[in-house]
Each structure stands twice: as structure tokens, then as C-alpha cells.
Specification:
Layout lengths: L10 E5 L3 H13 L4 E5 L2 H10 L6 E4 L8 H10 L5 E6 L3 H13 L3 E7 L4 H8 L17 H9 L3 E10 L5 E12 L3 E3 L5 H6 L3 H21 L5 E5 L2 H4 L4 H11 L7 E6 H4 L4 H13 L2 E7 L6 H5 L5 E4 L1 H6 L4 H17 L2 E4 L5 H9 L4 E2 L8 E2 H17 L1
Parallel strand pairs: 1-2, 1-3, 3-4, 4-5, 7-9, 9-10, 10-11, 11-12, 12-13, 13-14
Antiparallel strand pairs: 6-7, 6-14, 6-15, 7-8
Length: about 400
């Protein structure tokens, strides 16, 4: 079976101090259709190529341990000079070090294809290059919205939940859906949450939108129930809300008015909330669980929650942050963190969900590690209510045929 020409039309720079390995890599790239292959023995030579190449280099394949300027310093300079080339790390170094350099690469604003250990084969190289996408031209900064504009949008009922499925990785069944706020702006179209959530939180105004999303999500969940689907719905809670005495009662009343019970709803909170010692936060989380709401700790691994801290709040779900899911395929510390998170969930008797599943490789690894649930665009992307209901119906039909 021939290897696909995934490098067709692309221009490469190979940075490798070992002559034979450098030549071998150049030949692999040409066999994959590379339009042009530059080479350098160490970072200083490579940096000159990056600065002078016309047309510019698309992909830089670099080792780490080299004489003169090593690969780590070279990557820093690539980021500082504003190159738009993507980096493919290829090294004999320990997987933990590779994972660290991969994170550093992205922190410097440099596109990272993958971090691979030597020896490199044509198949591994082709799979890594298949991830490459031409960088898009920098767009103008999105328009900033004021608190007054966002408040007006809430009053005009312009906000609605989109739903992203929580999928069983063993059966493929949709077991739950996370409600993600979207703003249907009459002039600017669909507005992502990054452009309004922080404004509301920093001004202490997140309450109205959260309640609107909760109620609309409850309406949709009731409709799913009426069609025979047992899918639960998850709603995100801001830490600023959890300091309000009586929040648990308000949530209970709101979903009851929409015909749901707390068992139908999962409330997602961040690790910051999980590790909070504020009495009101602990009271609300405890009372929500006592009423029957599911409690999920979101983005697990990015904060400072320990097993002891998790155990003091009756969580029912642990969502593993997508950064560990993405980088675990390269092994090293990220895979260890992923495995540890799954073990912690199992020991605490709560459900584990891997966030941000974006590739077949990630999905395969999660199944191998026994992760019960996943969420991400590779599985099902966030959808408006009608489209999500249609997906539920199709999944139900497939199960019936089976």
C-alpha cells in the first residue's frame, strides 16, 4: 500500500545534525511530494533559512539535541521572528521532555504538528503531515461587546443553548448533552461565548444568562424525554453564582417549572469552585447534590484539586481537560495525567468524561485506557436544539436496527 502524497506543494526545512539522518528525512519528504526541502545542521543555520526563504517555509522538521543553537532555543527564535511555519519535533529525547517542548512550542505561538520519537518512518511522517493546514490570514480583531449590549441581548431573548453530546465510548450511545451558550446577534450573527461570558462575569451579571440557558435547556430536555430519550443535560455554573445563598433552591424551582427533576440535570463547575473553602459555595454544592442534581468538575487537571478535596464534595462526574487528551497520544506526562485522572474517577466512584476529543488517534487511546465517555468535535460538534434532537433520533434508529 503506497503512502499518500501528503506533502505535495509544501516547502520544508529539516534541522538535523546527523548527516545520514538528515539525508534520509529529506528523501522521505520528497517521496511524499514535497515541493522544496531546505536543510540545516543546527539552529543558527536553520534560523537564517527561516528568515530568508522566499517563498517561506511551510513546515520545519527539527531535532532537539544539536551542537551550537539547539532545537529548543531555535523554536523560541522561530516564534519571536513571527514565522508562520509549523513545527514537527523529531527526537530521541524522553517523552516527558518532548511533551514539555511541545507545550513550549505552542506557548511561543508556533504551530505544532506533533512530537515524535526517533526512529521516524514514512508512515509516521505521513500521519503527522496529514495534520497540517495552511495558516489563514490574520483577521481583524472581533468586535468587543459592551455590558449594555449583552444585557440588551439577554432581555431580547437572543441567547440560546447549543448542545454537545456526551458519548459512550464503548457503545456510541449519546448519554448526555452539555448546553453551551450562543448569542444570535441580529446584526453580527452567531457570537461565541468567549466574547460575552467574561464581560458578564467580571461585572457580576452572569446570573440572568445562566438562568435563561438553564430554563431553555430544561425545555429541550423535557422534549427529549417526551420522545423516549433518557439523555441528561449539563449546564455550566460560574463561581460567582455559587456564592449566592439560596441558589440551589432557585435552580430546583426553575427546572420544576419546566417539568424536569434534578436527576435530569448535571451542573458543571470548575476546579476553582471544587477547591473553594467559601461556606456559601460548599453549601450550594452540597444542597444541589442533596436535591438530586448531578455535579461535574469541569476541566479537571488545570487547577489544584486533589483527591481529598474532590472527596469532600459529592461529585458525580469528572471531566478531564482537553489539553491532556490532545497531548496524551505522544505519551509522557500527559498520558500519565490522563491515566491518573481515570484512576481517580474510578476510586471515587464517579463517571469520567474526556473533553475535546478531536482525532481518531485520541479516540483509540481513550478506548484503550477504558475511558467511559467522551465529548468533542470528532464525535459530535455543538448543535442547535433542533439539529441535536435529529441526531438523537438517528442514533435511536440505529440502535433499534441493531
Amino acid at each position: 500500500m503506497s503512502t499518500p502524497l501528503v506533502a505535495t506543494g509544501l516547502r520544508f526545512l529539516v534541522v538535523e545534525d546527523q548527516g545520514f539522518q538528515r539525508w534520509t528525512l529529506e528523501q522521505m519528504l520528497r517521496s511524499l511530494g514535497a515541493a522544496q526541502v531546505h536543510s540545516a545542521e543546527e539552529g543558527r543555520q536553520a534560523l537564517e533559512v527561516v528568515r530568508c526563504a522566499d517563498p517561506p517555509v511551510d513546515v520545519i522538521v527539527t531535532d532537539l539535541n544539536m551542537p551550537g543553537m539547539d532545537g529548543i532555543e531555535f523554536i523560541r527564535h522561530v516564534g519571536e521572528c513571527g514565522s508562520r511555519a509549523a513545527i514537527l519535533l523529531v527526537s530521541e529525547q524522553d517523552p516527558t521532555l518532548l511533551a514539555s517542548v511541545a507545550a513550549m512550542t505552542e506557548a511561543y505561538g508556533v504551530g505544532l504538528l506533533q512530537a515524535l520519537r526517533k526512529p521516524l518512518t514514512p508512515q509516521k511522517l505521513a500521519a503527522a503531515l496529514a495534520r497540517y493546514h495552511k495558516p489563514v490570514e490574520a483577521a481583524e480583531a472581533p468586535r468587543a461587546f459592551t455590558l449594555r449590549e449583552i444585557d440588551a441581548g439577554i432581555r431580547n431573548d437572543e441567547f440560546a443553548p447549543y448542545f454537545q453530546a456526551k458519548v459512550s465510548l464503548s457503545s456510541g450511545n449519546i448519554e448526555g448533552a452539555e448546553a453551551l451558550a450562543r448569542w444570535h446577534h441580529p446584526q453580527f450573527g452567531l457570537v461565541a461565548p468567549a466574547r460575552f461570558i467574561s464581560v458578564l462575569e467580571s461585572n457580576g451579571k452572569i446570573d440572568a444568562m445562566t438562568m435563561a440557558v438553564l430554563r431553555k435547556s430544561a425545555v429541550q430536555c423535557r422534549a427529549w424525554r417526551a420522545r423516549g430519550f433518557s439523555t441528561t443535560v449539563s449546564v455550566n455554573l460560574s463561581l460567582t453564582l455559587l456564592d449566592e445563598v439560596g441558589l440551589a433552591d432557585r435552580f430546583d424551582d426553575a427546572i420544576a417549572e419546566e417539568g424536569l427533576t434534578p436527576a435530569d440535570v448535571v451542573l458543571e463547575v470548575t476546579e476553582t469552585a471544587a477547591t473553594s473553602h467559601v461556606a456559601h459555595v460548599l453549601e450550594n454544592l452540597s444542597r444541589m447534590r442533596m436535591k438530586g442534581f448531578g455535579l461535574s468538575i469541569d476541566d479537571y487537571g488545570t487547577g489544584y484539586a486533589s483527591m481529598q478535596q474532590l472527596a469532600r464534595i459529592p461529585f458525580t462526574e469528572l471531566k478531564i481537560d482537553q489539553s491532556f487528551v490532545h497531548s496524551a497520544v505522544n505519551g509522557g506526562s500527559s498520558r500519565a495525567m490522563l491515566e491518573s485522572s481515570l484512576e481517580i474517577a474510578a476510586k471515587l466512584g464517579i463517571t469520567a468524561v474526556a473533553e475535546g476529543v478531536s482525532t481518531a488517534e485520541e479516540l483509540t487511546l481513550l478506548r484503550e485506557l477504558g475511558c467511559p465517555y467522551g465529548q468533542g468535535n470528532y464525535l459530535i460538534e455543538p448543535l442547535p436544539a433542533a439539529e441535536f434532537a435529529a441526531i438523537l433520533a438517528r442514533h435511536a434508529l440505529v440502535r433499534a436496527v441493531r
